[in-house]
């Protein structure tokens, strides 16, 4: 019977440490976000969830964002520019999400 309280305590401690680990995994560098989003677009094309036109528009937005990042980095990336890039990557991520689920499929 002493095993049950010990197991319950271990599970409780494990549960408390998970939110911190999840928070650490949620943050991604800009380069990681780029790789993830580009892979999401490619996966959408392969699965047929994105039409060619949708993928072309998303890739165009992705390239424009990449050019903006290069301009920002040329002068040194300050916190305001990093915040602007993160906001823009968030918006692109939402557009990828919506386009992949808008029930328009490649034929």
Shape: elongated
User: Counting H and I runs of at least 4 residues, what is the number of helices?
Assistant: 4
Let me know the average pLDDT.
79
Helix/strand/pairing class, anyone?
mainly alpha
H/E series: HHHH
Intertermini distance: 61 Å
Q: How much of the polypeptide forms β-strand, as a percent range?
A: under 5%
Point out poorly predicted stretches. 6-25
Q: Give a quick account of the main beta sheet: strands, pairing sense, barrel closure.
A: none
Share in helix: over 70%
Radius of gyration: 20 Å
> How many strand elements?
0
Give a verbal description of the structure.
The chain has 107 residues and is mostly helical. It has a domain at 28-100. It contains four helices and no strands. α2 (30-47) runs antiparallel to α3. The longest helix is centred in the first third of the chain and has 24 residues, at 3-26. The chain is elongated, with a radius of gyration of 20 Å. It starts with a helix and ends in a 7-residue tail after the last helix.
Keywords, separated by commas or semicolons:
107 residues; mainly alpha; 4 helices; elongated
Secondary structure blueprint with pairings:
Layout: H1 3-26, H2 30-47, H3 52-74, H4 79-100
């Amino acid at each position: 019977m002493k095993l049950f309280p010990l197991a319950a305590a271990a599970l409780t401690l494990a549960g408390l440490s998970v939110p911190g680990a999840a928070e650490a995994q949620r943050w991604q560098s800009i380069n990681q976000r780029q790789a993830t989003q580009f892979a999401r677009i490619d996966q959408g094309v392969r699965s047929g969830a994105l039409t060619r036109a949708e993928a072309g528009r998303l890739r165009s937005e992705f390239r424009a964002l990449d050019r903006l990042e290069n301009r920002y980095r040329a002068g040194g990336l300050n916190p305001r520019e990093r915040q602007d890039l993160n906001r823009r990557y968030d918006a692109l991520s939402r557009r990828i999400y919506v386009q992949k689920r808008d029930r328009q499929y490649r034929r």
